[in-house]
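INSTRUCTION: Work out how this chain folds

Token vocabulary: learned, describes local backbone geometry

RECORD BEGINS BELOW THIS LINE
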Amino acid sequence: MKRCNIIIHSVSGNIYIIGEYLREKLCEFGVDARLYRVEDSDLHILANTKDTVNQYYEDILALPAASEEALLKADMIILGAPTRFGNMTAEMKAFIDNTYPLSESRALEGRLFGCFTSCSHSICEGSHALDSMLYWAQNMALVHIPYGVHTEIGLSNQPVAGIVHLEGKENDIRPSDRLGDVIETYARSVAEYLEE
């Protein structure tokens, strides 16, 4: 069974919700999917001040911490992080910056890659964050499996590169059933690639 490791940085819980649903769907399609978190030393502070953060705080902390080993054991790596100023969060950036030796050794070459994000304002803003994750994947010689174009789905305005969830200014709009259709479609595509 092929293994897909989903590595997330979640603050408000939206990335956690997407990552967990994606993991569940991948498992349904016969993939050994696992969810990991990147370290965030400030999350407890936000959890004490924002209800949206506190709601999933314990679930996020219960996830195993992402490591180089988690990358090396995966046949596919999926990154998920909130968008901040058109980029991934500093915590996700710190995690991937520490993987530089893997780019020099090309230890991840040929493995599959995917990405998703949540953002406040627009799909375009989220697309920039997806692009920054893709730059990392390209440097690692990973093979990107895009979301693609799916006009048959109600929420068809997703970028080709990955999945974007619009969470609003207060980060309190949770992923909907319509986004669930997007995630399920992507999970099915990923499972097909992993079967090959």
User: Anything to note?
Assistant: The first strand starts at residue 3 and ends at 8. DSSP finds eight helices and seven strands in the chain. Residues 177-195 form the longest helix (19 residues). The beta strands are 3-8, 32-37, 76-84, 87-88, 112-119, 143-144, 163-166.
